[in-house]
Amino acid sequence: MMLTLLRLIRIVFVALRYRLDELVLSGIKHPVAYGLLRIVRFGRAPKMPRGVRLRLALESLGPIFVKFGQVLSTRRDLIPLDVAIELAHLQDNVPPFPSDQAAACVETALGASPHKLFKQFDIDPVASASIAQVHLAVLHDGREVAVKILRPGMLNVIEKDLTLMRVLAGVVERLAPDGRRLKPREVVAEFDKYLHDELDLVREASNCSQLRRNFAPGTGRENLLMVPEVVWEYTTTSVFTMERMYGIPVSQIDRLRAAGIDITQLARLGVEIFFMQVFTDGFFHADMHPGNIYVSDAPATLGRYIALDFGIVGSLSEFDKNYLAQNFLAFFQRDYRRVAQLHIESGWVPPHTREEELEGAVRAVCEPYFDRPLAEISLGQVLLRLFQTSRRFNVEIQPQLVLLQKTLLNVEGMGRELDPGLDLWKTAKPYLEKWMRERVGLAGLRQRLEKEAVQWTQLLPQIPRLIHANLVRPDMAPALHAEIEQMRRAQEQTNRLLATCAAVLAVAVGVAIWALTRP
After folding, report:
1. Are 35 and 41 in contact (CB under 8 A)?
2. Which PANTHER family does its entry note (predicted)?
3. What is the distance between the alpha carbons of residues 190 and 177, in angstroms, rounded to a whole number?
4. What 8-state DSSP symbol labels residue 249?
5. β-strand partners of 134
C-alpha cells in the first residue's frame, strides 16, 4: 500500500512538473476551469507544446507508461492529432537488465543454464526494450538464433501501474468534458490486453509461426517477405528463441541503395505485402514501424522484406475484409452513397441514421483529397478523418479497424520515406479490384465450394436417413396443443385463486382497521 501511495505521489509530481494540469484544464470549457487555468499558469503559458510535455512525462514515469503512450498514439480517433503524432515518437530506449538475471531467467524457463543449452550465448544483449531484451546465440547444431527474454518481475510492476491507470481513467471520465466520448477506461483495458499478450512469448511465437506459414515456399509469396523460424524446444512464456535474421533497417535508405536494392520497387512491394496480409489472410503484422522491418542484403534473397517483433498482430473476419474492400473501392470511385450504405448495413451506426446525411458527411471528408495529385493523398489520413467524422453519428469504431488504420499509416509513412512519389491508391486499387473479382466471380464461388466440400461430404450421405426419420416421426402437434391448453387452464385457475386471495386479504385488512378505529 505504501509503495502504491509513493508511486501515485511520483505520478502527481511528474504531472505538475510537465504542466499536465494545464493540458487537462485547457480542454474544459467552463469559467471555473478557465480561472484555475490562469492560476496554474502563473500568468505564463507553457513553453513546450502539449504533446511534447505529455511525451516527456510518460518517458519520466518509466517503461510501462511509455508503452501506454505508444498504444495511445494508435487511437487517433480518440485523441487530438498533434498529441498522437508526438506520442508516436516514444521509443523503448530502456537500459538492459543485468546479464546474470538474463541467464537465470533462461535457466528457470528452460531447465538449464544458457551455456549448456547453447553452443554460444552472448551475455550482452543486442537490443533492449520495456518488456524484454534480445541476446544472440548459436545452437549446438550450428544454427544462429536470437533469444528474447522477458524482463523479470514485469507482471507485478504492470499490475500496480495498471491499477493506478484505471483510477486516473475513472477521474478523467468523470471530470473531463469529453471523458465519456474518449472512453479512457476502455483505452486502459485495451492497453491491459496488449501488455498481457506481449508478456506471453508463446503467443508472440505463434504469431511469428503463422505469418511465416503465410509466406512459406509454395504459397507464391516466398520472394516477398522473410519471417524467422521459431525454435519451439527453446521457447516458453518467458523465453522466445527464433532464427537470427540478417538485413538492413528499412529506414537506412543510403545503405539499401549501396546494396543495389531498387528503392522504388521496394516501396511498392511493401504496400502489396500489407494489403495481401489484410485482404487475403485477414492476419497482419500490426507493429510495422521501421525498427521492426529490415531488408535482406544477402545475394540469394536481395531486396526481400524481413519482419521482426510479433507481439502485436491484427486479425480480420470475412465480414471485416469485405466491408473494408468495398469501402476502399467506393472511395476510389467517389461513390459516397455506397460508403454511407456500407456503414448502415454493417450495423455500426444507429438504424435511424439518415443515409443522405451520412453521405454528405463522408463527401465532406473525402472530396477535398481528390482535388490533389494522387501521390499527395494519404489513404491513412482519409480513413482517420472518416473515423473522426463518424463520431457525429455515434459510430462504434471497431478495435481491429483502428489497429488497421494505425498500421496503414505506418506502411504509408514507410513507403513514402522510401519513395516520396509513391501512389498508394494506384498500388492498392488493382489489388482490391482483383480481390473483389475473385470473391464475387466464379473463381470465388469455386473456392468457397472447395472450402465447404469437406463438410458437405459428411452431411450429404446422411440427408436421406434424416428425411426418412423426419417423415416417420409421430405427429406431436396434437399432444403439444393439448399440453399448451392444459397449461392455459392451469394458469387461469391460478389467476382466479390469486384474485380471490387478494379480495379476502383486502376484506381482512379493512375489518382490522375498522376494529382498531372503533371508540
Report:
1. no
2. CHAPERONE-ACTIVITY OF BC1 COMPLEX CABC1 -RELATED, PROTEIN ACTIVITY OF BC1 COMPLEX KINASE 7, CHLOROPLASTIC
3. 22
4. E
5. 127, 148
Residues 6+ apart with CB under 8 A from 428: 271, 275, 328, 379
CA dihedral 235→239→243→246, nearest 10 degrees, is: 170
Helix (H) / strand (E) element for 346: namely none
- Cα(356)–Cα(360) distance, integer angstroms: 6
- Residue 194 amino acid letter: Y
CA separation for the pair 148, 134 (Å, rounded):
4
**Which residues are registered as beta bridge partners of 33?**
none
The alpha carbon dihedral of 200, 201, 205, 208 has a sign of: positive
Q: Is 92 a catalytic residue?
A: no
Would you call 447 helix, strand, or coil by DSSP?
helix
Among 161, 287, 309, 320, the one annotated catalytic: 287
pLDDT tens digit string along 408-451?
Answer: 777 877 887 888 877 776 777 777 777 777 766 666 666 666 66
- Quickly count: other Cβ atoms within 10 Å of residue 506's Cβ: 10
Cell numbers linked to 169: 481513467
Q: Provide the β-strand partners of residue 98.
A: none
From the list 55, 63, 115, the residue with the least C-alpha distance to 92 is 63
What is the sign of the dihedral through the CA atoms of 495, 497, 501 and 507? positive
Task: Note the helical H segments in 353-476.
Answer: 355-370, 379-390, 399-418, 424-440, 442-459, 463-472
Q: Is 214 exposed, middle or buried (0-12, 13-18, 19+ CB in 10 A)?
A: middle
Question: Taking the model in full, what pTM does it have?
Answer: 0.72
Spatial separation of the C-alpha atoms in residues 496 and 483, rounded to whole Å: 20
Per-domain residue ranges of the chain = 1-93+155-197, 255-440, 448-473, 476-518
